[in-house]
Amino acid sequence: MTITTSAPPSAPGTNGLARSAHPKRKRGFREIWWIYVFLLPTLLGYGAYTIYPLLASWWYALLDWPGFAVSGQFVGLENFERLLTDVQFWNAFGKSLLFLVIAVPVRVGLALLLALWLNSKRTPFSGFFRTLFFLPVVTTGAIIGVVFTLLLDANGPISLGLVWAGFTESPTNLVANAGTSLYAGIAVWVWKWLGITMIYWLAALQTIPQDVHEAAMLDGANGRKEFWHVTLPLLVPFLVIITLIDTVSALNVFDLMQTLTAGGPAFSSEVIEIFIYRTAFAATVPELGYASAAAVLFGLLTVVLAVAQGVGVRWARARMGGGS
Known about the structure:
MetI-like fold, UgpAE/MalFG_permease, mainly alpha, 72% helix, cell membrane
């Protein structure tokens, strides 16, 4: 008796679909190949100026390399061990955290107050004021830093105005004083980016249906009660998203702080980014490997905040979806 074997029959039409799909994909690529040609310069630039430096910094962090030699000496995790005992690194780390803890709540809170004011139908010229508050956002941070070094000088209008208002006894250069330089940078940073956070809040306020406000007014709620018991609870998911976005933004203040205070005086306003720049390029003997190690740790902190932002956005979307 002869036994013959054969492959199990495939589902009806499966082979035909597989054979027909492959030529279609080939024809589709032949029709749109020119799109990839236009994308190629962007991909090359992104790879050369973003991906490669990112990967290279991890390798440089393991080297003792001043940047002048062709290659550095491999030292493993020695740079990271030095950072753990480097007083100036932890000073910069602390200044960055202090900047973040003060600047973000002030920026988010002031922007919310502005958005509530500009979102009111009783506010005249609201479009003009929205544009006015948004203008600093489109101005380069380095230019704002240079301008405010003049405005915050001892003979500048801000310092003289504080004396006139009775806040200080004598004119003081606010960016050259160790006790005020960081706080001056925080104030300028909040002023510059206040407009974009205001736009976020205005967009959030537009999502609240008008009939919700009308129902609260019919129930006898005044403006304060309506805000605390109706508006604010509906804004909580947006508060999470906006706070996390502003937190990540507060870690990227190099251009503004470098031109405004350059980390001084006496490292009183030196944030992590300025520490990295000074160690890599401005020191008498540059230490590119050591600066790369600091940049890696700073990058890990940013990644942690980015992950927290992603979790927060998911939670906020779930809240908004559940409440709709």
